[in-house]
Amino acid sequence: MPPGIHSVSRSELRARFGGTPVRSQILAGIFRAADALRVAGCQWLWIDGSFATIKGQPGDWDGCWDPSGVDRKLLDPLLMDFSPQGRARMKVKYLADLFPSTWIEQSSSSTFLNYFQIDKATGLPKGVLVLNLRDIS
Questions:
Q1: Is position 83 within any domain?
Q2: Domain that holds residue 57
Q3: What is the residue-wise DSSP string for 53-95?
């Protein structure tokens, strides 16, 4: 994917990145996370990981979400539990590691949104997908 942030709708995400049983399962995790975040007032969910590539059998997806305007009382507590047990439960429920986009990824000192836009193998810029959670199509 070319560098930058690429906006997709749910239907575009399904059409372009679904198609195999593994991808359909991961897509279900993305939509569970999107729905949980939308209920809490989140507008943007960025999607990264092997799911957002042409890899035939991706292992998972990673993501970050915009915390601005989110009502923490309505947010699934699992989305803020970064203990080892919480991360394991998040991975089971959403099939992902998810972070607030403005938080700093420790090894890179970048926000998670910026961190996800760098190829870990090459250090070069790469693309990520963004889902507008107010668009439920």
A1: yes
A2: 4-132
A3: SS-SS---EEEEE--TT--TTTS-GGGG--SHHHHHHHHHHHS
